[in-house]
Fold this sequence. Notes:
heterodimer, A: 482 residues, alpha/beta, Aspartate Aminotransferase, domain 2, Aspartate Aminotransferase, domain 1, 3 domains, 7-stranded mixed sheet, 3-stranded antiparallel sheet, B: alpha/beta, 2 domains, 4-stranded antiparallel sheet
Amino acid sequence: MGEPLIFEKSVPGRKGYSLPDLDVPEVPIAELMPAEYLRKDPPLLPELSEVDVVRHFTNLSRDNYGIDQGFYPLGSCTMKYNPKVNEDVARFAGFAALHPLQPAQQTQGALQLLYQLEAALREITGMDRVTLQPAAGAQGELVGMLMIRAYHQSNGNPRRKVIVPDSAHGTNPATATLAGYEVQVVHSNADGLVDLDDLKHLVNQDTAALMLTNPNTLGLFEGDILKIAEMLHSVGALLYLDGANLNALLGLCRPGDMGFDVVHSNLHKTFTTPHGGGGPGAGALGVKSFLSPFLPVPVVEKTEKGYVLDDRRPQSIGKVQTFYGNFGNLVRAYTYIRRMGAIGFRKVSTNAILNANYIRKRLEQVYPVPYNRFCMHEFVASAKRFRDRDVHAWDIAKRLIDYGIYPPTVNFPMIVDEALMIEPTETEPKENLDRFCEAMLRIAKEIEEDPELVKTAPHTRTVTRLDEIRAVKELNLRWKPA
Amino acid sequence: MEYIPNTKEEQQQMLKTIGVETIEDLLGDIPSEIRLTRGLQLPPPLSEPELKTELLRLSEKNADLLHHVSFLGAGAYDHYIPSVVNHLAFRSEFYTAYTPYQAEMSQGLLQTIYEFQTMICELTGMEVANASLYDGGSALAEAAMMALRVTKRNEILVSSTVHPFYRAALRTYLSGTRARILELPLENGATDLVAVGKQLTEDVACILIQTPNFLGCLEPVEGLAQEAHRHGVLLGVAADPISLGLLKSPGEAGADIVVGEGQGMGCGLNFGGPYLGFFATKREYVRQMPGRVVGATVDTKGRRGYCLTLQTREQHIKRERATSNICTNEALAALAATVYLSVMGRQGLREVGRLCLQKAHYLKHRLCEIKGFEMVFQRPFFKEFVVKTPVPPARLNKRLFKHKIIGGLDLGEVDRKLKNHWLLCVTEKRTKEEMDQMVTVLKEIIA
């Protein structure tokens, strides 16, 4: 039996908080607040002592799985180790207990950190300016697309269309729509790369941008990138990089040198800020200088009087966050960058690529790789051959759980049937890569010998396979008292 | 390198398995024209001890609120964070996990999100809540976009008493759409109920307000809800969750969508982020809601369990037809809020509210003793209020800072019409002694 809900453990009268007594003369509440504004029934929050709460969440944490427990080869997500020193630094009082509206004279250290982080990211990505405001990759995409829109608008026409590959992350088309664009899909060719003929057919004066991931979601480098850039730029369209896969490029090549005009980077992927169970992230967005007038406000600038927040930028797209972005994560990313330096980053990308190719090689005979060549930091295998046993990629993922490994991304990208997208990252030792490969190979045998074992997995967690269809049909999104 | 385990020997074994000589052999797909032929120009790497010293030094250039007394609010609040919050939220099984797509391996996190959704529903008086959004400002923008989808109308009325940065986020989010945003005027520090009636047309999708609003005043939510509903318009309310142990929920007052900034619930100030956007609405709109949501279900043996649900609204399935482009959210901040609300409980949250209310009114009372200081708006307020000052607030703040006091926000910097207006915030952390000292210093300045 799993952990009861915290509401079910509530005992009327129990108390888990400690607050000081009121030290000012008390005024009857009716004199301060008209009754119509007051709540009659308190919210149904639980009543528990501190130890009850501690045990509840500690028990729940033990029924969860993070990188600190083991391998997490989740493709496209770059689940690398999150250095502990980052956590210590982010908790320094000068960073953690700082109000965003304190005058700049009181926050010079924070502004300096933002300024230096921007400088480092400019160098790493080869871009001219970087905004640190986006709270995550998708918000970075929105900022980027709105800046592209503002740029085209400043030339008299926002244009109507944005092209995304059929292998793109779902956020790309969703963002393009949010930014007011019609989405067109460019197909992948037999090599798993952008089909240049198809692209040529789509690109015209009405194209605002192409949103590309490079290496793409198959883990393959778009070798024609300079031709693609030329194709777009020749009609005045821009090239956007979804930098989810930046980990593969660190120190080897830079998006800015490939012709990208706008680049977002997920600091919670490449730059080790923890994923937090789904967030917070941090999305830095880099642009070429011709786009810098449109950057969101405020922008950190260095002046003779020190660092300042500049919000007098008439062409700015405005703000997407209340304040300056997920600063706590920016501190972590900056700490990581200072730990790594140029030499460290080259080790990151090359080891990520080595690890991915090693797994690909060990699995390719049993899990065919549809676009099989040297990959970058990840690759996509297919579980299609197990369909005749009625076993799907999803089942293999569930069975991996029984081996104590977090499953790869499944059924994405959509251009591969029964996709298993595997990204080991550079922080995994060889013996774990081997253990993963052996588990995958053993599961393939299990499918031959006892497919039910795989189809009904997992068998070793506090719950067996969950009925996700029922969750939709009989929506139950909150606890209610019996 | 301590974060990259493989030794040279292991790398050699792996290269041998792959069938190449060097790692360079794997990089052939990158055209030589774009290969970086130099090292990145970054500061040289620091060892861990050097790193900590360097960054500590940088952090110490900031005036932190551990060593200063703050009366600054305006969207980010210095509420007390019980010790248990960070100890539990930063269990590494939680914070180093990814989004719980593989439910059976993520039951702990999924259950905490289900508990979070329940608590948000309880606080806001709504029927469904999502697993979080980025922050208060972007959550308000998502509320507007949902109202546009639900009503299929094209106009947003936002009160000019909503936080100016929230309004800025709203404008930016909607700048690529055809929606129009109009601002509602204020009257005595809150949305002008009379003016609202005149601006309501069949094009209006929603009215957006904030309560307590940017100026600290409580809004006439019930009146606005009635007015809105009469025209088939939705009411979206940005609320301060800390106030909701004490104050009537927006849901009870008639709101259709309730969003807000949850930072005050166990999340540090962090110079503006990470914070916690929350989003709640009525059940009938659940399929139009943005963001992730967790539902309860059963496993093959009939046991209760939790999983992400209604994913067909989301970008990874619906792509260009998704309800929002959000993917990564603020799960860890939502977990911190869940722990916070668990320890505070039914009584504690009410007590925090009572302390804020009483102390804020004490400070107001003391400030109004000083010559030239006067209250601007005659409206009920919770923990923030505006006073008119006889000298520019920037000058007051400068002097106070010498006494390690961080004063309120100089509203003249946000809005020229509000020159010599000072927005002050008093949380449960402020003491009578601190407030008295502030008043003493102010009296010296004025004298």
